[in-house]
Amino acid sequence: MTFSEILRILIDERDLTQKQLAQDLHIPVSTLGGYVQGTSEPDFETLKMLANYFHVSADYLLSIPTGQAKSQQENELLRIFRSLTPEQQEMYIEQGKLYIRMNNKRSAESLKSTS
Question: Which CATH number applies to 3-66?
Answer without folding.
Answer: 1.10.260.40
